[in-house]
Amino acid sequence: MEKSSCNCDCNNNVFRLNKVSSCPVCFGSSAQPQVPNNFTTGAIWRNPATETIVVTLLNRTNTSQTVTVSVIDWQSCDQAEMPKDAFLCGESQPSLFNGIPKPLTFTIPAKKLLTVHATPQNAWQSVDPVYEVFVMHPPDPVIPSLAPGDPVIFNTWGINNSGIPQEGNTVLHHQFQRTLLF
Questions:
Q1: Residue 68 has pLDDT above 90, yes or no
Q2: Residue 67: exposed, middle, or buried by beta-carbon count in 10 A (0-12, 13-18, 19+)?
Q3: What is the pLDDT, as a whole number, of residue 137?
Q4: Nearest Cα to Cα of residue 57 among 122, 15, 105
Q5: In Å, how far are 35, 36, 41, 120 from 179, measured between CA atoms?
Q6: What is the pairing mode between strands 52-59 and 113-118?
Q7: 172, 39 contact by CB (below 8 A)
Q8: Sign (positive or negative) of CA dihedral 137, 38, 102, 81
Q9: Helix (H) or strand (E) run with residue 152 in it
Q10: How far apart are CA 65 and CA 56, in angstroms?
Q11: Angstrom distance (rounded) from CA 124 to CA 118
């Protein structure tokens, strides 16, 4: 077995991660590289009838998962975070926002659904009504053949006052894009 300059001290079960690194990774090593789990919708043009942006996050695992949700209003140069309310299994959670809105970090219990409602500010402004949804959850080790699938499934919709999803404001889980930024 070739000796690596990557400080991998294992002698068995080595594989190369061509897309991430040229260094070998040892199965069972505590120093395995982590793949960031930061996802974005990209910029979404808000339908004029959209009053609330809904983000659903379903924890499919048998353990709690901590997630962070950010909904950015790109309508102005401020790139302001939108105020949010959280609902766990349909029940309103205590308000976590007293003052300036910020990203919501929440630990979702095993096999539970968290729903986040973000409210666009200045929805009456029709110039560039663009927003973006970011979701971050803990990184996974880079072991492609052993990856169990996504522990948290997330989707987003823009809805009107009657709760009806608005055309063009739906992004499903597989349509989110992985990003290094958050």
A1: yes
A2: buried
A3: 83
A4: 105
A5: 10, 8, 10, 23
A6: antiparallel
A7: no
A8: negative
A9: strand 152-159
A10: 14
A11: 16
DSSP letter for 56, please. Answer: E
From residue 89, alpha-carbon distances to 15, 58, 119, 122 in Å are 41, 10, 20, 29
Q: Which two tokens stand for residue 149?
A: 């699938």
Question: Per-residue pLDDT tens for 109-154?
Answer: 999 999 999 998 865 666 668 999 999 987 665 544 444 578 899 9
Instruction: Report d(CA 151, CA 58) in Å as an integer.
Output: 8
Q: Per-residue b/e over 79-107, b at no fewer than 16 CB within 10 Å?
A: ebbbbbbbeeeeeeeeeeeeeebeebebe
- Please report, rounded to a whole number, the percentage of residues in the chain having pLDDT higher than 90: 48
Return the amino acid letter for 107.
T
**12-49 confidence digits (pLDDT tens):** 444 444 344 444 444 444 555 566 689 999 999 999 88
| Measured CA angle at 75 (ends 117, 85), to 5 deg | 15
Measured CA to CA, the distance from residue 78 to residue 122 in angstroms comes to 13
What Rg do the C-alpha atoms of the chain give, in angstroms? 20
In total, the chain counts a number of residues equal to 182
